[in-house]
Design a protein that fits this description.
It is built from five helices and eleven strands. The protein has about 350 residues and is of the alpha+beta class. The protein has two domains: about 130 residues, Four Helix Bundle (Hemerythrin (Met), subunit A) (Up-down Bundle), CATH 1.20.120; about 150 residues, Sandwich (Jelly Rolls), CATH 2.60.120. The strands form two sheets. Strands 3, 5, 6, 8, 9 and 11 form a six-stranded antiparallel β-sheet that branches. It has a five-stranded antiparallel β-sheet with strand order 2-1-4-10-7, with no helix packed on it. A hairpin with a 4-residue loop joins strand 5 and strand 6.
């Protein structure tokens, strides 16, 4: 076979342009194309006969089967360089080729003289035998295409297919790698950080009327930034705070400290986000719930808690004693793109 003769240097250094064939090879290519056309025509006739039988058009199927008989026999004679047969009388002299296949070819010739007398069941049987014959001829032809009729063009086509496979694989893998990298390590985009106040642990409902926000710029990535909000009157009384640190998954952040001041500038609540001895955020009971956020990697006791968003709607819900004169909230934060994180 042509394929086993290929070497890596053939794949790498053989010309990308189709080879110029010698006259003998051109003749081989013509013979192969001719045989392929005849094989396609025979396959089409087999399908037509099957369709006629399924529609109970028995006589039409028999008429077409006679033509198919000569197609199959003459194809075998042609590929073995023998004279074609033109009449049913000459079919008796046709020598059935030997085959090591389980299903033997040309068995339908044993019933061809009785074709006009066959019922639907008999036609199904000889059609099955004709299909076996077609598959035999197809198999033998393909073997000869790769051996006796092999040309430089066959090798070129195989090399082209292999090259196309490798190039396609490289493109697909590159695209997949790029998409996966963008998913696992997304670039941070401009977005907003939002704060919602709520009444208590028992009443954690939030609304847009009790929300403040500030833009988060990607130019501040990697730097500590202190965000400050002046609270409206609707947020002056609260027993909990919902923090939406981002609107994007896959971004790391560190929340250093939260401070809430009253109208006189006095600090009435503060919380520092550090890792406790249990490796959870300190005073973990103060967290009502944490959504679409997880701690990022291995962390040590006493460090600031580094977190990463796992969804597009991350939230931290904190609860604390009721505050009645809240006026200002300060958050000290740092955002980090995941692909810029240094491994510990």
């Amino acid at each position: 076979m042509v394929f086993v003769k290929l070497r890596m240097r053939d794949l790498l250094f053989s010309p990308w342009k189709a080879p110029v064939l010698e006259p003998r090879e051109l003749e081989f290519e013509k013979q192969k194309e001719s045989q392929k056309r005849v094989l396609a025509q025979m396959e089409s006739r087999l399908e037509s006969i099957e369709l006629l039988l399924s529609n109970e058009k028995l006589e039409d199927a028999k008429l077409l089967f006679r033509s198919l008989t000569f197609d199959l026999v003459n194809f075998q004679l042609q590929r073995t360089n023998q004279k074609e047969i033109l009449s049913e009388k000459d079919l008796k002299g046709f020598l059935i080729p030997e085959s090591d296949r389980k299903l033997k070819p040309f068995l339908f010739l044993n019933s061809i003289e009785l074709l006009s007398q066959l019922d639907a069941k008999g036609m199904d049987q000889i059609l099955s035998e004709a299909i076996d014959t077609y598959e035999f001829l197809l198999y033998e032809s393909k073997k000869e295409f790769k051996t006796r009729f092999s040309t430089l063009l066959d090798q070129y086509r195989i090399i082209r297919q292999i090259r196309f496979f490798f190039l396609s694989s490289a493109v697909v893998l590159s695209a997949f790698g790029f998409i996966y990298y963008q998913y696992k390590y997304p670039a941070m985009r401009d977005q907003s950080i939002k704060l919602y106040s709520f009444i208590s642990k028992e009443k954690p409902e939030t609304s847009e009327s009790m929300m403040v926000s500030k833009p988060v710029s990607k130019k501040d990535i990697g730097n500590w930034v202190e965000y400050e909000w002046e609270l409206p009157e609707s947020m002056s009384t609260m027993g909990g705070l919902r923090i939406d640190p981002l609107e994007q998954r896959g971004i790391r952040f560190v929340l250093d400290q939260i401070s809430i001041l009253d109208s006189k500038g006095k600090e009435i609540y503060s919380k520092k986000m550090i890792v406790s001895a249990s490796l959870l955020p300190e005073d973990y009971q103060d967290f009502l719930q944490i959504l679409d956020i997880k701690t990022a990697g291995k962390q040590s006791h006493g460090e600031l808690v580094e977190m990463i968003t796992t969804g597009s709607d991350p939230q931290i819900h904190l609860v604390f004693p009721m505050l009645t004169d809240a006026k200002t909230i300060k958050l000290k934060m740092k955002y980090i793109e995941a692909h810029k994180v240094k491994k510990k």
